[in-house]
Hints:
48% of the residues lie in helices and 12% in strands. The protein has helices at 36-40, 42-51, 68-73, 108-116, 146-153, 161-174, 191-206, 208-217, 234-244, 285-308, 314-318, 321-335, 346-358, 366-370, 373-390, 396-409, 426-436, 440-448, 451-454, 461-477, 479-487; strands spanning 26-32, 57-63, 80-86, 89-95, 98-103, 122-125, 134-135, 140-141, 181-184, 223-226, 252-254, 259-263, 279-281. It has a 5-stranded parallel sheet, sandwiched between helices. A 3-stranded mixed sheet has the order 4-3-11, with helices on both faces. A 3-stranded mixed sheet has the order 10-12-13, covered by helices on one side. It starts with 25 loop residues before the first strand and ends with a helix. The site of D-mannonic acid has 9 residues, from helix 10 and helix 14.
Amino acid sequence: MRLSNPTLDRLPATVRRPRYDRSAVTPGIVHLGVGAFHRAHQAVFMDGLVAAGASDWGIIGASLRNPDTRDALAPQDCLYTVAVRSGAGTEIRVIGSLLEMEVGNENPERLIARMADPATRIVSLTITEKGYCHTPQTGELDERHPDIVHDLRHPQTPRSAAGFLVEALARRKESGTLPFTILCCDNLSANGKTAQRIVTRFAELRSKDLSQWIADEAAFPCTMVDRIVPETTGVDRAAVSSALGMTDAWPVITEPFTQWIVEDRFASGRPDFAAAGVQLVSDVTPFEHMKLRLLNAGHSALAYLGYLAGYGTIAATMADPNFAAFAAHVMEEAAVTLKMPAGTDLAAYQASLLARFANPVLHHRTWQIAMDGSQKLPQRLLSAMQDRLQRGLPINTHALAVAGWMRYVTARDEQGKDIDVRDPIAAKLAAIAQEAGPVAERLAPALLAVESLFGTLGSDPRVVSVVTSALAQLYRLGARQLLAEQAMP
Ligand code: CS2
């Protein structure tokens, strides 16, 4: 038996499910990048809103290139399970807010038409950092990116998110329809502004008029999104299907915590997000910095050093007290760079992050988080480093995290085994590592010279010196021994 509309009734009584009439839910949102994160985060908020009778907005989910999610969910009427895991056990809930699925590269026209349809009022995005085809250090569109070059030549059959967004917006302009709101839900710094810069620049390369219209009429609110959602494994699928008493081909696994903070600027209306616990604010910046520099920085630091030490998951890494202390130090270094609204308890926030990281029933792989470091380091580690340098403060712990990344991208672990490094510039990084050899004094400066990632920070002598010495120690002692020595009083 497969999870689907007709089988909803056969679920065990304890499973929360859509009790509302799904046929009365209408698509108001097109979401690009319908991966595990979206399905455990935004789609759950939307399901909660409909269930509470506060909205009838559903989601059309789109993958830009990969048909896997559509293939798994289409036979189940786009229903899927969210399994929330904690020490207290697992709570499972079937989500009904996803109505249809599209795959961009299979049928670009249909996806564009969906986005251009006046019924679509928001296009939200979780396309990961690299999906923006930008230079991570500057946040500008990379006009030489192959997908961008392609999409400018073939605007009707785009590949990139920017290409889809701009073509759909062009058609809305043409037909006299208001633009949709572009709701960026990726972990980028000033994510709405970054999306805006990229979309308007791409549009400008097509037509000044179009780009002006988008700048004047569309909205790009910034958001802070937070929920830890590891990749679903075969074991997870089997466990969820067994709890359901029927097959769910692609459930998502997550933690109890969830948070969504959104700037309240929408071009064509929005559902009553607040009724589902979304925090609507006028400026997301402080919360976004807080999350990127504490949670995501801590995550990346643990992922690189933990992986090098042979730990497979964040929880396993955190179970080593020296690594937990290291994560806490990264957060302490970053915390002083944050300017939070009065009443924010940063110490409590950091403590809650450490507890979330340690959640032993969540198998969040260090390898998964280590992915795409060239896209993640600037907003997670480098901006805080820069702020500290400006104030004359030491940067040792951040430098060690960066050194961990450096050793990781050489694609050789501490035992000499290959690392499967996934990163848009993995080949370039490997070439640099090859040329420099495993010698901190050569490797650190060579990697710091990658401008798209480090910008001017990479030539700051203080950075070169502290990162080089951290990398030298990492080579000499290995991650475990190094952190053990640092933890000694
Ligand atoms: C993680 C994030 O994969 C990663 O890089 O740091 O996906 C993290 O789990 C989320 O941002 C938590 O909200």
